[in-house]
Design a protein that fits this description.
Number of helices of chain A: 0
Oligomer: heterodimer
Helix content of chain A: under 10%
Shape of chain B: globular
Number of strands of chain B: 11
Order of helices and strands of chain A: EEEEEEEEEEE
Mean pLDDT of chain B: 97
Low-confidence stretches of chain A: none
Distance between the termini of chain A: 39 Å
């Protein structure tokens, strides 16, 4: 089955770090563009980051310099390293496969709560 | 950065109604627009890509149109399972962005 499954969310204090994982099956993460999208409680969707097939990475202004997207071909897994977390980073984080610019395969999401 | 706006922000409609949601980009983006449906507690689902192409498995009552800065999502005959929030998204820029969403609920 073609799917992505996120993990790694939880409750964390402001200023700390967290790494999210997105395990893919049925396709190869390094052969597709992959992206992270987040959704704060009761709010809309916010694009976070993307990694291209060639390894190029791009970030939303709100996370640039604090978050890092990466992938591991041996584990067929996408990651989001999140540093210097803030209360406003509290959200459900989704990973998605990107096909022709559209996010065509989404995971179920993992919740990140930043609070003291 | 490219800003996406949607109207209306919410609407109430009845089953079998025709529903039209509008999305506008802050600059011309050709047909680099995609549409998603999201139900409470669930991940978004891709409906339309490249402004007017129907994603595989999506019912034909959904359609998209537009180019440049103005785009529409049309549901030709609203069904009970279509009550949800709809988002447009631009893929013209490497810095992707979503519209704020349109919530469709039952009249």
């Amino acid at each position: 089955e073609v799917q992505v499954v996120e993990s790694g969310g939880g409750l964390i204090q402001p200023g700390e770090s967290l790494r999210l994982s997105c395990a893919a099956s049925g396709f190869i993460v390094t052969s597709d563009y992959m992206t992270w999208v987040r959704q704060a409680p009761g709010k809309g969707l916010e694009w976070v980051s993307i990694i291209y097939i060639d390894g190029s990475t791009y970030y939303a202004d709100s996370v640039r310099g604090r978050f890092t997207i990466s992938r591991d071909s041996s584990k067929n897994t996408l990651y989001l390293q999140m540093n210097s977390l803030r209360a406003e980073d509290t959200a459900v984080y989704y990973c998605a496969r990107v096909t022709a610019g559209a996010f065509d395969l989404w995971g179920q999401g993992t919740m990140v709560t930043v609070s003291s | 950065d490219i800003q996406m706006t949607q109207s209306p922000s919410s609407l109430s409609a009845s089953v079998r109604d025709r529903v039209i949601i509008t999305c506008r980009a802050s600059q011309s983006i050709s047909t680099y627009v995609n549409w998603y449906q999201q139900k409470p507690g669930k991940a978004p689902k891709l409906l339309i890509y490249a402004a007017s192409s129907l994603q595989s498995g999506v019912p034909s009552r959904f359609s998209g149109s537009g180019s440049g800065t103005d785009f529409t999502l049309t549901i030709s005959s609203l069904q009970p399972e279509d009550f949800a929030t709809y988002y447009c998204q631009q893929s013209y820029s490497t810095l992707f962005s979503f519209g704020p969403g349109t919530k469709v609920d039952i009249k």
